[in-house]
Amino acid sequence: MGIFSSIKNAIFGDDKEEKAAAAPKPATSGFNRTSTSAISEVDVEARLDGMHDADKLNWRESIVDLMKLVGLDPSYSNRQELANELGDSDYSGKAEENIWLHKQVMKKLAAAGGRVPQSLKD
Fold first, then answer.
1. Among 30, 70, 74, 93, which is 20 to 30 Å from 54 by CA?
2. What is the pLDDT of residue 35?
3. Domain of 25?
4. What is the number of structural domains in the chain?
5. d(CA 90, CA 34)
């Protein structure tokens, strides 16, 4: 499992929970349908705000603090691995790169079904 998957699972729940939520539900009405129940969006901001120490960390702007909040080691090597996963193979740990990395994580969380405020993606 990659670093992004670890971040996503810490916020959304692990893949087993997602698969169970996505499993087709039997129809309870008189209609004969085979559709699945829609998975509701995960409110990323609320989930992160609800985590222990969220008020002590600047997770809204800092990739290091975001990683700390979800229980991951924010070391340079882990941030470099995350950057590689998200398309930056030349990550060197500069402030601008960390800002980019944070925004990419937020965008990818949104693409995975999370509700992320626009201010965290821009």
1. 93
2. 44
3. 3-121
4. 1
5. 47
End-to-end C-alpha distance for the chain, whole angstroms:
27
Q: What is the DSSP letter of 40?
A: P
Average pLDDT across the chain, whole number: 86
Residue 12 tokens read as 């959304």
CA distance 18 to 116: 18
Question: 48-106: per-residue pLDDT in tens?
Answer: 999 999 999 999 999 999 999 999 999 999 999 999 999 999 999 999 999 999 999 99
Among candidates 67, 76, 78, 72, which has minimal Cα distance to 102? 67
- Sort 118 into a burial class: Cβ within 10 Å, 0-12 / 13-18 / 19+: exposed
